Amino acid sequence: MRNVLKSPEELISCMSEYTDKLDPDLIKRAYVFALNKHGTQIRESGDPYFSHPLEVAEILINLKMDQETVIAGILHDTIEDTNTTLEEITEIFGKKISDIVNGVTKLSRFELSSIGGAQTENFKKLLISAASDIRVLVIKLADRLHNMRTLKYKKKKSKRQFIAKETLEIYAPLAERVGIVAIKDELQDIAFMELYPEIYKSIKPRLKKLYESSEETVIAISQKLSELAESIGIHCTITGRLKSPYSIWQKMNIRNISFEQLSDIMAFRIIVDTIPQCYQILGVIHRNYLVVPGRFRDYISTPKNNSYQSLHTSVIGPFNKRIEIQIRTKEMHLVAEYGIAAHWDYKSGNSSNKAKTKTDAMWLSNLVNILENTSGMDEFLANSKSEIVSDKVFCITPKGTIVSLPKGATVLDFAYSIHSDVGNHAVGAKINGVPVSLKSVIENGDQVEISTDQKSCPKQAWEGFVTTTKAKSALKKELNSLERERIEMIGKSNFDEFFSRHNIDVSESDMQNLATACKLDQINNLFYAIGSAEITMRELLDVYNKLKKTNIEISSDDEQIRKKNEKKTLPIIGVPNVPIMPVTCCTPVPGDRIMGILFQDRGVEIHIEECPIFSDQQSSSDARILSLTWDSDAFDSDAKYLARLSILVLHAAGNLAQVSEMIEKRGASILNLNIGEQSDNLVQIQIELEVKDISQLTMIMADLRSSEFVKKVTRI
């Protein structure tokens, strides 16, 4: 167990070696904040929990990351593992740092239930897309690296192996994609040691023995290569190393050979000042040593997707040893070692280097696209290019399942993606534990939880904010089903009420015979035809009389009711055979965009779409929304419809008479006129008038607005 933790002064001192953009007070504040928040928490290793964020910060400092990243590294577990809120971090440390911490928190909210298949691919996409700031990924990698370093303290072997496999298949490739090779190598080796301990134990001692016996050889080969460089006047730095156990095992597997058969275990790196020097060094090496065919790669002229550049070659070098050689400039080496971390233009403080700043900015903006379009078994995106991450959001269920949705998808889309029943009965939702409405838009990494009630039904208004094809289809199907049920209920009610009033006992067999006679195969289809006014009760009675060979007639009271209802009927398509209820909030006229509200056992209200009362009624539990249109074929040329206008006119003699004259010139009749509020020079007039349709009303309003003494015309 470690007894002494790194002090904030140590962190500041290490960071000051590569950047002068430091706020020591802010770093100290983050240190104390995280220390207090984690308090007495203990890791499985027995160390204070606070040691973990400090180790993560140290890894970030070794990568020479900026101050915001290091502070976010110190704070990265406070939201997930303590009572800290995002708002608290924003208030104390600013929005940039809180955004990074929030990004890391989102990636920590779930755990894959299995490795492999679609879940793994979605996880990879989530890692990319959730990190709108790439520094989120770097912190996540540093977090995983330290957790792997302490993996041995986890008691359950199955848990250790799960984490190791996840690391090998997801986090190590991620580190490679963003170019942080040192983290990639260490993650691979620790995971390899956990997953394949026997193989690791076989390779590691032999590598150690080989290293001990080859140490002098490595030094001697480095010296020979250095002498070659000096012979052409180039000063360079040369380092030699043995490859890692995991990379050795990969080579053994790929080539299907034993450890003893490997001949290129040694690797040498030559670092020079300029690109021309890279090629000059390559030339002198090839002139002096036998080149291994097919082993030359020019990653300078054609960089890798993660911006890695180097010349690679293999030769039979000094002392007849087969060696691999990498040749690169100092700048290339920085990118090769630190990857994404080497591209933060704000670290150098050199604002005059505009070309580099522009290049770095372009590289960062294109990084996600680079990651998206890679291919191969170990690449991040095995799907086609049509499945681009930038068009997707990846959210998480409370159980950790990752759900992929189009960007802009709502909570309700998420509910329908789980199951149509979840969507149809959704009554509430939470995003990251906070209650939200069903139309809230989901962001990458959000954890979404849906509350359902089997008694609840979907609302027609939902069609306005679902975005996915699956949600739209399932919602429309359910709404149509509910609408049909409602109309069938109205039809059955009309049927029962009518035959009961006439003291006619209709058996189920009679109902089926009536349905068959009406060319309908089921009784419920008969009720639907009645409820939607496809069949009137008068017509059905005629059918009944023929079947029963009776002559029952509709009473005079029924006929009067029918005629009275016919007078109330508007030329509208989509209204079922139920009473139309008068409304006072708006006055639809033919040509208006209209909707209906059907109330069970009450009737239907017709509203203009813009009517505020219609908007309020949409959420009513006993209301069904009907899409209606005017039936032009059923228009009565003599029919008149009520409309109401509010007119603001200049207060002067004769103006009211001119308003009346303009209305009457267009063929409309004024039914009522009220003078409202008055000021020194303006008067408010409310007029009720009869018009034929919206066209006539629009012309009247246009005439009024064109008048000099009319200041405003609105429809009530």
At a glance:
With 716 residues, the protein is an alpha+beta fold. β5 (311-316) and β6 form a beta hairpin. The strands form six sheets. Strands 1, 2, 3, 4, 5 and 6 form a six-stranded mixed sheet that branches. Strands 13-15-14-16 form a four-stranded mixed sheet.
What keywords describe this structure?
alpha+beta; six-stranded mixed sheet
What can you see in these coordinates?
The chain is α+β, with helices and mostly antiparallel strands. Helices cover 48% and strands 16% of the residues. 32% of the residues are buried. Residues 345-390 and 560-568 have low confidence and may be disordered.
Q: Structural class of the secondary elements?
A: alpha+beta
Percent of residues in helices: 40-55%
**Mean pLDDT figure:** 79
Strand portion: 15-25%
Low-confidence parts? 345-390, 560-568
Q: Tally of extended strands?
A: 21
Alpha-carbon distance between the two ends: 78 Å
The largest sheet is: 6 strands, mixed
